[in-house]
Amino acid sequence: FMADRGYINFTAEAVNKALLIVKDFSIDRTAGSGTLTIQLPEKGVYKLTVSSKYKSSVDLVITTNNNHFYKNTAFLGNKTENYRTNLLSLPGYFYVPEGMSRLYFSINNSNPGGKGYATPDDINKAFVFKDNNGNTVKAALVTTNDSALFYLAIPSGNSGSFWQAVKMEQYNLCFSNISNVLWFATKKTCSSTGFVATVESKYNTCITQLTALTPGTEFHWEVYDLSKWFYYDTRVAELPNYISPNAIITLKTGNNCNATQRLGDDEKYLRQKEACASGALIAAPELKPILYPNPSTGIFSCLQDGKPVKFEEMTITDNKGIKLAVLKNDMQINIGSFAPGIYFYSSIVNGLVYRGKLVKL
User: Fold this and answer.
1) C-beta separation of 189 from 259 below 8 A
2) What single DSSP character describes residue 254?
């Protein structure tokens, strides 16, 4: 805030009902950090408007609680869509409405510093777009008379679905005829999907190995590092020995779930890599037990490293912390009699406590 000035207002209102204001809240220059909770009264479309005055600014982290959060217009002021500062915001998911044949977007820094306008080849090197089937889609100029307006062709049968931008470098984009869904609120990782990165000494060098924690038969890895892509379709993937800690790893499984992380954000992996490089003994990774499948109609198995494991105790609670069940010395739980919804568990496996969330269908 400016000295002696500052004002930011948050207004949430229903789009399809006149004068239904759900929340109207303002802060001034004396305000500190905090949480603003908006309770939506029923299903529908709601609009959040954030207005600032007197050169005010605010950093927002928005948790959507399984609702879709999207923008329906371009940002006003000097804001642009630039996600390069946070590589983990990619892949960015956006929704292509039913029946759409072309998706338009503009490049708002197409001629940076007067060095020449971006060509389609420049844009397709700086961005990678993928359709709902994971196929790469190339951008094309709308007209040679406008070097900043591009489009993606939407094949028949590929609309009405989520697409992705999995790479963004150098240029800033602004979608022209769609709402940018699930980019400002990153798609949530399913609790049953996860992986661990380890280092092994093989072939007289240090090899990075990725292991999916979820059992099954369908695994798809996408690894982006140093402007190169690597793809694997096995539960265990062995990466090239020159892979860097800046590599972005995405695991997709057959249950429409994904998990993304940067290698260098895993301290255990970095310690293993350092130990391998020095010739020291590499410690075995610690794999967190999970309940699978999740969501489920009621039966969940306790797995560790993809194998059944017995828990000493399992406590199930609701979202208010009320204890609903306590199970002991088993490898499976059955909450088939529970109403569909979200539950929480606390398990003890080999003397250690693990917590997580269950989704009962």
Assistant:
1) yes
2) T
Give the E-state strand segments of 97-218 in sequence order: 102-107, 127-130, 136-137, 140-143, 146-153, 161-168, 173-175, 180-181, 195-202, 205-212
Q: Is residue 332 within 8 Å of residue 339, measured between CB atoms?
A: no
In the block, tokens 């954030």 appear at 50
Nearest residue to 326 via CA among 335, 317, 314, 338:
314
Distance (Å, whole) CA 239 – CA 137: 26
User: In DSSP terms, which residues pair with 139 in a beta bridge?
Assistant: none
Write the single-letter amino acid at 227: S
| pLDDT of amino acid 76 | 47
Write the burial class of residue 183 (CB in 10 Å: 0-12 exposed, 13-18 middle, 19+ buried): buried
**Are the beta carbons of 304 and 312 closer than 8 angstroms?**
no
pLDDT above 50 (res 13): yes
- How many other CB atoms are there within 10 angstroms of residue 27's CB atom? 17
Q: Which residue reads 């890599």 in tokens?
A: 273
Contact, 226 vs 244, CB < 8 A? Answer: yes
Tens of pLDDT, residue by residue over 131-164, are 888 788 999 999 888 888 899 999 988 988 888 8
| Length of the chain measured in residues | 361
Backbone angles phi, psi at 27, to 5 degrees: -130, 155
Q: Pull the structure tokens for residue 122.
A: 């420049």
